[in-house]
């Protein structure tokens, strides 16, 4: 009875809830998810950047797409060339509506010749079925059947090498391999949402707790740290990764045209395989945009520290930095004219910079462009100067090695 | 002869009459509102039929009341409180249930249990409907221009409408064209597969109409009910503190504060016409009141066929109003209860009791209920929308006891052999035994019940035909056709006589737009 009036819990809930002492819970795709395990985010953030952070990512929507036409369906659905996706390889992609505007984004893992796993932020069963008409393919949602953990940080490989039945050294960036952990079968993909060295582990929900326990036990010497989604939110901004309904609005959620975004506008031009044969959803619109250029682009903004000091100094204060990523929309100006907005901004502890994901109108999105971002200083709106930079802000050399 | 003279007299103290009066008084006019009954409110009244149990007698939920009226008349200051009605639960015949809670994630989870695809479709459906409602809503606030007229005012109105139409995207226009022509069953079949979901959603497409979910045009009625969803903080169905009578009490209080005089027990016999102009009213008791302007907030039949001699009106209008469809199709059963109804699908006291409980297991169920009504019977197994006001506002019933409001469809006005006491009792019995199938303790919990047929709506609230919208929301009775072609701008062929109620544009529900728009037109004409 009471179950009806609660959000869903992930298979790791018995462990995560025991550790979530500040009761800092957030909502994620119909689940409760740990925001942070401490009152502050620093320990968890630095686990991502210096040790290994263990993040429960089970709420991700997961679909199993199988059958002779599985590749054809995904090739039609997404702008990527699925023919080139090898078994054991993972693609990151967005997917669009007919007008070339993003509906969602996620990863596609080729589990076998005719078998794929698709992850998404929003439920996608209906859209998958609508595109699969007349195809020989079965689509199964297994969000709740598959538990997922993200192990992120420079020590993640060492931990997995110790705890898995076989070393993971052979798993290259955006590749996956089956393995055994705590005697349970797991699939390990070298993916993540932090821009660091990291892996995601996929397992049967029933095996969730033994896998968690083994990782915590064996990872202890490497500084494994359970980490909530708020520290991950800071890391993903540093990595230049965006989030649905924070940094872009799904075309189906938009009230007005201006709220929609294309893959090009979100910096996903590299995922749009216009050279692939045949139709895919949004192709015509994307071809036009590729030809004519994008009106907007998401890029990085690094705020000048001296500029911040000046603006705060005028109020008699040292610069103040937010303790977590800020999801407020902040106007961005150039020469006094608004040319865009920031969708997420954060203090980057590893870069020691105040950074933001900003959406700028052409031609202001070229790297090196000087712009200014709104900040509120002592209840007054002020503008701090900064420079447009290419994404990501942060990419350690060990990420792809 | 004239006892007193006013700037404006309003016939009927329902919400539209009171709102029109308040707006006129706000513009400095001396206003008298005359009400036939001893209480104000019209069909938005709360009455203590059994001592201690307060029934929200006819209209029982609020969502469409225009936000600008709430602001302009400062209704919160005058006691308006709209309390949340957070959920809809549909008990099913297999002992399960379908619920829509007030949390998106919970509702999605619940729907997913029945159909994963419907759970996703529901999200998209509500966005599409909300966008269509957003697209069509500005039209509701317009005074309908007459497309056949070449007057400056109508042309300007048409231009406005044209410019507005041009602002819509192609997709939106297709969608709206479909919505205004489709049946709600066809619309819902395009989106969903789970029968109880379709049944429950289709219900808002038939409310107040004499149509079934498979009748074309019902998709629009469904959309009409979505209008309330898009006003930001104003959105969503709610239950007014003290029942819907609480809404009219707040409007009356605001009107009085603005200087409106309200007289109850003052039934108007006819409008006094002198020199081809309305110049006052005569009451049934012989009293007469003079005024420069008279506005009727009664139904179209009374307004055009009863209050005014037909020699003052063109035949065409008289004929149009005679043909205006006002077939009542719904009834109410208000029940005083000694305990909460226990639903087998969700035993115990729970959140379902704070929301609506809908007997709408499938579209077939409702269509079958309509079949009986088509041929002059009330539905033996009707669609019922139940609300337990005492769970939302404890002041509605004695402590530990409850009141339950059951909206029932179909109960045709023209029933075979006519309504009488015995038929009313059997109708009430059909409702109770339908509820009993899902809540077996209902019968033993009944302390008293009030059964209301369309005849009773006509008799008590004075609405000809007993239609809750004063006239069905049919395509041929909307916008510039409501109540009749060429007379949809709240004026009548009789100078000084106006019409502003649910039978006028934009239609019914406790919306108040007709009263407000009529008041504005009256003020425009003022010399």
Q: Helices and strands in order, then pairings?
A:
The complex is a heterodimer of chains A (about 400) and B (about 525).
Chain A lengths: L12 H7 L4 E5 L2 E6 L5 H9 L1 E5 L4 E6 L3 H8 L12 E7 L5 E11 L2 E6 L4 H7 L6 E4 L4 E7 L3 H8 L12 E6 L2 E6 L8 E7 L3 H12 L4 E3 L2 H10 L44 H10 L3 E8 L1 H9 L16 E5 L2 E12 L4 E9 L8 E8 L2 E10 L12
Parallel strand pairs in A: 3-13
Antiparallel strand pairs in A: 1-2, 3-9, 4-7, 4-8, 5-6, 6-7, 9-12, 10-11, 11-12, 14-17, 14-19, 15-16, 15-18, 16-17, 18-19
Chain B lengths: L4 E7 L3 H12 L4 E4 L11 E5 L2 E4 L10 H6 L9 E3 L3 E4 L5 E4 L3 H11 L1 H25 L11 H16 L2 H12 L2 H8 L3 H9 L14 H7 L13 E3 L3 H14 L3 E3 L4 E7 L2 E7 L4 E9 L3 H7 L8 H9 L6 E8 L18 E4 L3 H12 L8 E5 L1 H4 L9 E8 L11 H16 L5 H4 E7 L1 H8 L35 E3 L13 H13 L2
Parallel strand pairs in B: 1-2, 1-12, 2-9, 6-14, 12-18
Antiparallel strand pairs in B: 3-4, 5-8, 6-7, 10-11, 11-12, 13-16, 13-17, 14-15, 15-16
Helix pairs in contact in B: 1-10, 1-18, 3-4, 7-8, 7-9, 8-13, 11-12
* Number of extended strands of chain A: 19
Question: What are the segments of chain A in which pLDDT stays under 50 over at least 5 consecutive residues?
Answer: none
State the oligomer: heterodimer
- Low-confidence segments of chain B, given as residue ranges, are none
C-alpha end-to-end distance of chain A: 50 Å
Of all chain pairs, the largest interface belongs to: A-B, 19 and 22 residues
Helical content band of chain A: 10-25%
Mean pLDDT of chain B: 91
Overall number of structural domains of chain A: 3
